[in-house]
Recover the amino acids of this structure.
């Protein structure tokens, strides 16, 4: 064992001899301190015995440590060994403590990140995004509006992690809406919030749910503890005189044409009508195809309307309008007209479909102008079905014509009847009834009687 009083000069001159992996130069001042030289480096080391076992610990590179500090560190380690403490065990404990502190810091950062990212607001946005991706644009718009008006205004609750939101907080939001006299809005808000939490709760197990809902970690639905609020069914129907005034108020603007076609077609849902494209109208059979995605359907159901003459003429005019618009575009671009099949029937500029709220606002404007009891599109739809029932149109035919209540095992698997003849006869009779209303004529008993399907 080579031992000398270490000096900077001796350390600098000390090298690992050729043919050996390492060499040691021991200090006489701090006997447990040595310089270890290898082919490419020199470092201070400490070596001692504890419980008859050799302990060797690297102090550090000679370029990073000065000699006095290295001796002081060697003496400190020697004191530990003499007290029965293994410095390597202390190193392990320190490393474990640092790793634990780092893990805790990262966990805290993740928790803070989750708290800021997976909030109630974010859950509401993710749920409405899911509705849009599944083609439920009308539901998505209504849901987003309810959340914006009645959830996001509670900033503290909206910014809280969704999985920490309590039933008491949800109840406070619903109660505020209800106490403002908005009974229906309160019930709808509760329903939308429940649906959002249930979607996130099911997401880890239901492949039909979007994966981005899983990260919210929802394990229970805080809305479950809040009683449902019964929504009273609407009962407003327009009288024949009111319907006459409504028809006369309709002009030639595109929203008015949408309102007129919905009426002539028996009271169709506006959101479905506005999604119709040029290719959805078959001029040979005067049939308009709509897609009903309402409810819990995984895919929209085809809804065919064999139109009566006035409605068919209106639909044909919309097709001609789309072709004319394409002709003008092609002429301006100096190219041949393209296929118009993919264009929307109801579109101001041809790029996007008219939003469903536009005709609704126009109907409300007409309602105000008539100075009668207010009505909306649902009331017009209800009026159509009520009058159709009064004309002797069967319940089954009305259900097929208005595309509602068509579900269950019988409808899904066994009843394949298209009801085309019944629907066409009903719409022809309905146009005749509207003509009579517009002229101020009274109905002569049952206008038509159709067999039950």
């Amino acid at each position: 064992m080579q031992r000398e009083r270490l000096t900077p000069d001796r350390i600098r001159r000390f090298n690992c001899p050729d043919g050996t992996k390492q060499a040691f130069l021991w200090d006489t001042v701090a006997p447990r301190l040595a310089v270890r030289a290898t082919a490419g480096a020199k470092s201070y080391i400490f070596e001692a015995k504890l419980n008859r076992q050799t302990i060797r610990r690297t102090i550090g590179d000679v370029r990073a440590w000065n000699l006095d500090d290295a001796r002081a560190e060697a003496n400190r380690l020697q004191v530990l060994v003499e007290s029965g403490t293994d410095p390597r065990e202390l190193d392990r404990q320190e490393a474990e403590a640092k790793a634990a502190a780092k893990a805790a810091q990262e966990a805290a950062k993740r928790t803070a990140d989750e708290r800021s990212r997976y909030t109630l607001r974010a859950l509401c946005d993710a749920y409405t995004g899911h509705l849009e991706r599944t083609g439920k644009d009308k539901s998505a718009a209504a849901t987003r509006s309810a959340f914006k008006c009645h959830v996001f205004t509670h900033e503290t609750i909206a910014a809280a992690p969704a999985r920490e939101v309590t039933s008491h907080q949800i109840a406070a939001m619903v109660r505020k809406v209800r106490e403002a006299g908005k009974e229906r809005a309160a019930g709808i808000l509760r329903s939308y919030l429940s649906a959002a939490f249930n979607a996130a709760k099911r997401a880890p197990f239901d492949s039909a749910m979007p994966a981005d809902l899983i990260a919210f970690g929802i394990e229970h639905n805080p809305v479950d503890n809040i009683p449902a609020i019964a929504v009273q069914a609407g009962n407003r129907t327009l009288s024949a005189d009111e319907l006459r005034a409504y028809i006369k108020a309709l002009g030639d603007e595109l929203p008015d044409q949408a309102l007129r076609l919905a009426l002539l077609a028996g009271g169709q849902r506006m959101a479905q009508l506005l999604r119709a494209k040029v290719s959805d109208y078959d001029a040979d059979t005067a049939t308009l195809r709509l897609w009903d995605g309402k409810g819990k359907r995984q895919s929209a159901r085809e809804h065919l309307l064999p139109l009566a003459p006035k409605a068919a003429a209106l639909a044909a005019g919309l097709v001609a309008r789309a072709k004319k618009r394409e002709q003008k575009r092609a002429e301006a671009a100096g190219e041949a007209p393209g296929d118009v099949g993919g264009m929307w029937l109801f579109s101001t500029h041809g790029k996007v479909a008219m939003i469903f709220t536009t005709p609704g606002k126009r109907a409300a404007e007409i309602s105000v102008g008539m100075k009668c009891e207010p009505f909306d599109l649902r009331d017009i739809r209800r009026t159509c079905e009520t009058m159709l029932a009064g004309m002797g149109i069967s319940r089954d035919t009305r259900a097929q014509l208005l595309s509602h209540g068509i579900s269950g095992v019988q409808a899904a698997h066994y009843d394949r009847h298209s009801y085309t003849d019944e629907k066409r006869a009903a719409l022809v009779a309905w146009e005749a009834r509207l003509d009579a209303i517009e002229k101020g004529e009274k109905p002569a008993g049952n206008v038509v009687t159709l067999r039950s399907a």
Q: What stands out?
A: Residues 408-416, 449-453 have pLDDT under 50 and may be disordered. Residues 87-117 form the longest helix (31 residues). The chain has three domains: 3-85, 118-225, 240-439. The two ends are 109 Å apart (CA to CA).
